[in-house]
Amino acid sequence: MLRETLRRLEATGVRVLDVEVARIGPDTSRDDYLGIREAGAELGARYLTVNGGDPETGRAAETFATLVADARPYGIRPLIEHVPYTQVSNLDEAVRIAERSDGGEFC
Q: How far apart are the C-alpha atoms of 102 and 19, rounded to whole Å?
């Protein structure tokens, strides 16, 4: 499917802005999203949308910061998205997490 998507992107000139969605939770490890980082880089994506599912904000911020650092070599910048039904349910929480990540953003 990835090869076909790449072929169609080339044929149409369409570009990929972001890949989604990575969900971070209490048990998220740095290898959980290796595949999405690799696929996103191959597709030329600039961003990776992330949803927060960890009730401990400090741990969520650390996990997000690790994801930001791990995505950097792939040319991808993670965005922590505030979604009302997740642990990161408002913009203030997303901003606090992004500010602790050394390069991540919020949306």
A: 20
pLDDT in tens, the chain (107 residues): 999 999 999 999 999 999 999 999 999 998 999 999 999 999 999 999 999 999 999 999 999 999 999 999 999 999 999 999 999 999 999 999 999 999 898 98
Return all residues near 29 (Cβ < 8 A) that are at least 6 apart: none
Q: How far apart are CA 76 and CA 57, in angstroms?
A: 23
What 3-state class would DSSP assign to 36? helix
> Could you tell me which of 72, 77, 66 has the C-alpha nearest to residue 20?
77
Helix, strand or coil, per DSSP, at residue 2: helix
